Amino acid sequence: MSSATAPPLDRRLRLPSLPPVTQARAREQLQSLLAAYLRYRPLVQRGLTGGFVLYCIGTTYLSMTGRGVKAGRESSASTKKRGKGKSKKYRGSVNDPLFFARLKKLIRIVIPSLRSREASMLALHSAFLLARTALSLYVADLDGRIVSSLVTAQPALFLSNLSRWLAIAIPATYTNSMLEYLQSELGLAYRTRLTRHALGTYLDPPAHGTGGRLSEKDLGGTGDDGKGEQLFYKLANLDDRIKNADQYLTVDIQQFSNKLAEIYSNIAKPVLDVILYNYQLSRNVGAEGLVILTILVQASAGLLKAVTPPFGAYAAHEATLEGELRFTHSRLLESGEEVALYHGEEFEKNVIERGYFALVKHVNRVLRIRVWHGMAEEGIIKWLWGALGLGICAIPVFGGEVLGLAGGAGTLGTRTEGFVTNRRLLLSASDAFGRVMYSYKELAELAGYTSRVADLLDTMDDVKAGRYQKKLVSSSSVEGNAKMLEGRGQIIESDEIRFDNVPLISPNGDVLVKSMSFNVQPGKHLLVVGPNGCGKSSLFRILGGLWPVYGGTVYKPPAREFTYIPQRPYLCTGTLRDQLIYPHDAAMMRVRGVSDDDLMRILDVLEMGHMVEREGGWDAVREWRDALSGGDKQRIAMARLFYHRPKYAILDECTSAVTLEIEKVMYDHATSLGITLMTVSHRPSLWKYHSMVLQYDGQGGYVFTELDAEKRLALQEEKQDLEHRLLEVPKMRARLEELRAVKAERERQRSA
């Protein structure tokens, strides 16, 4: 119907049954109001459209920065004052007060600067997002033209529009492929940045470590300490917060990086689509309908958000259960021999099954929740919003003449073109808004992974700064020992080793020795003896810089001047050469002026030079912990000691699998190299190589004195002889009672 044949405005404005005079006045007032509105409608349209754009940008900004979250406005300090309940409730969710602060910290790591490669990739990704939206707008308009040409039976116009459709497919497919490629590349780049940052802290190497840098000390100069943090050890042994760091460093960082790369595309693109599609719709159907639609959609979206479960917390808990399950498997692999000898398969199977079924129970619970949540999502987003969209598309048809919209008048083809175009735009806008809603769920999952990764980085920072959180042993005085653990002693670099009133305390609060004082001069070999759990290993962990000093003063050389050789030596992955020079590599070995011939001479000292030919040369690669016997492993560890030639060597039962002849060669050669030995062993054959002894009594006491090997051996033999005689005492007493009984029986018979 054309405007020339349209009925008068007063006939189209139907009023309820009222007196004629009242109807006339009402009709005049409505006519004047509508005329005034239509006069200023272009200005109102611009205002409504601009307000809509600002509203979309503002709500997205508030949502992404957390300022729209009530809990996000509360400081962490006030949260701590109210207790840990609320923090625990929102932990791993978007409502967590710390989520956006943690996310901002992680983003600064993965995108260090605007000139970084990641920032450039993100900008290119944004450009392709804009291009795809522009192409979608063009396709929506072209779709309407194609349908219009079909309805009006114009074959030439149809073929022309169809050719445009095929032509636009080339840039559209390229844009979509590039978006997927750039998103994957962004996820990989984020993971690389974050992994390097985490590993740089977790495995902080000394200056002369495996990173390829040698200190002056390694080359014969003075140099600085070059001491590393040994954070990987402290994180596992001095702190309880991170149970399975491998899970955090691999799976959680990967999940966070991929989710962060996805969330940008899943939020930025839909928000941009919502703005552009609705802007175009406002031009076609009027901003009034757009505002009404936005109000209804936001109301239903608020309802949907209110009933959305904390999927982020669920994802974080699932990652925790996955890590615990992996840990049980890795522990079984590490202790496989002991479990096999105890025939503990059934017990370990039950442990693994409990972990697995706890994970399955949680996953099933989340899946059931997702079913009902998915029904609510589809019902609101697809069906309710679809019905509202059809109502918006009907505005140009039924009210276009009143509002002066295109599509309210004209031919059937024009109306069809307008309806199809608007419907396509509305479906795209609805889909974009739906993806914005879905992105809230993805943002919740991102919050879970953010919590996990941030916990790892925060805990490593705390441990690096000496702030540990360790559960105290139940047998200790928790309050008193907690105060002792808060104290810190002093470490002074010195050529000798001296302890002045230093307590030996395990990180879990077990006081082994309240105060210890002794000193070891260079060249004065020390023998450490005592029962298990008395503090022998604790002493060496302090000397190696693994445990903090909780009091007193420790004088010791830099950590690089110590080499520790346990009973079961560590053999790295690599060549036979690598086993002797660990943690150096071949290049560092040559820088130090050491050749393979020098390594061969070291092996010859230990009577194992034939091993090189037997194993296939210096460059042979094996799983050395399985290829070598226990004695060979211990001799390889001693060869490693002779290569590094430190000032001090801590030998912890490291000759238990070799003969006495090889043991003598080991100690004699180490002494000739000027290495001061600190040995933990109960073998009397080692006493003669030491001049001092530190003996624990297992009750918190100790004795530090000079060691006279001959006298101690004599006393040991006398002790063993007395113990043997004491064992014979009960037998002699029993025999004496038998003889007395026989004598008494004979005397009784004589008297009878």
Automatic annotation (TrEMBL):
Coiled coil: none annotated. Keywords: ATP-binding, Hydrolase, Membrane, Nucleotide-binding, Peroxisome, Translocase, Transmembrane, Transmembrane helix, Transport. GO terms for cellular component: endomembrane system; peroxisomal membrane. InterPro entries: AAA+_ATPase (IPR003593), ABC1_TM_dom (IPR011527), ABC1_TM_sf (IPR036640), ABC_transporter-like_ATP-bd (IPR003439), ABC_transporter-like_CS (IPR017871), ABC_transporter_sub-D (IPR050835), P-loop_NTPase (IPR027417). It is found in: Endomembrane system; Peroxisome. PANTHER family: ATP-BINDING CASSETTE, SUB-FAMILY D MEMBER (PTHR11384), PEROXISOMAL LONG-CHAIN FATTY ACID IMPORT PROTEIN 1 (PTHR11384:SF69). This is ABC transporter transmembrane region 2-domain-containing protein. It comes from Dioszegia hungarica.
